[in-house]
Amino acid sequence: MSETFNLPPLDIDEYSLSNGLRVVLNPDSAIPVVSLAVYYNVGSRNERADRTGFAHLFEHMMFQGSENVPKAGHFQHIMKAGGTMNGTTSSERTNYYETLPSDQLPLGLWLESDRMRSLAVTQENLDNQREAVKEEKRLRYDNQPYGQIFDLINEMIYKNFANSHSTIGSMDHLDAASVEDVQEFFRIYYAPNNAVPDRDIFWRYPFAASAAGIGRDRTCRGRRQLPRMGRSARSVSRVFDRLEDTKAAFA
After folding, report:
1. Could you report the per-residue pLDDT of 155-194, keeping only the tens digit for each?
2. Which domain holds residue 152?
3. Considering just the CA atoms, what is the radius of gyration of the chain in Å?
4. Which residues contact 156 (CB under 8 A, 6 or more apart)?
């Protein structure tokens, strides 16, 4: 006998703040936990050909402190509150997330707000995290069997540079990067109108993102036009790219 399993529809509430920040809410009364994720519309596809690896570098830089949070303070605040957190980078986006007891939602919003508006992009932090990225590349790519297989596959599949190059980037490019290069990357892409915070709120629904003032004083300006990549297969064995110039989705 077969049974049909139907998932209930998600209760999604979506709106935008006056600074351009898009907010997506999904309340759930199952358990007293809140999950907060901030997605920035920037990935390795946005990088210059002579400055690859910046999107992934910022995944590291975002934990190096801000105006009101010291270096590594983000980790300490979250862990002391009984939560977990991390970040990830892809060719399409960079995201940062925390899972906390629901009464700690203001803490998560404040931490994300502070680093969005006042990240400590300094020479010291750049030098430190540049070396951390190099070590990660040695560990996960260079010294792993088949560690570079997905990079090689992307180079064969995609003809456009935006999607064909490695997300972790070139170590030579990172060595050549100045702190001004990195500050400019932050200015262009890490702004409220280029981000979407998503919150799965369990048990209760006490705060709006506007109360935390996420990214209140910054807007995203001067963004480069990005290629939109489409894919289709002419045969089972051949995949080709179709590039279409368009403005950035959050311009």
Report:
1. 999 999 999 999 999 999 999 999 999 999 999 999 999 9
2. 13-221
3. 20
4. none
Residue 233: inside a domain: no
3-state secondary structure the chain: CCCCCCCCCCCCEEEECCCCCEEEEEEECCCCEEEEEEEECCCHHHCCCCCCCHHHHHHHHCCCCECCCCCCHHHHHHHHCCCEEEEEECCCCEEEEEEEEHHHHHHHHHHHHHHHHHECCCHHHHHHHHHHHHHHHHHHHHCCCCCCHHHHHHHHHCCCHHHHCCCCCCHHHHHHCCHHHHHHHHHHHCCHHHEEEEEEEECCCCCCHHHHCCCCCCCCCCCCCEEEEEEEEEECCEEEEEEEEECCCCC
The total number of structural domains in the chain stands at 1
In a domain, 248, yes or no: no
Flag whether 2 is in a domain: no
Q: Please, is 121 exposed, middle or buried when counting C-beta atoms within 10 Å of its C-beta (0-12, 13-18, 19+)?
A: buried
Three-class DSSP category at 95: strand
Read off the pLDDT of residues 199-216 as tens digits, 9 standing for 90 and up: 665 433 333 343 344 544
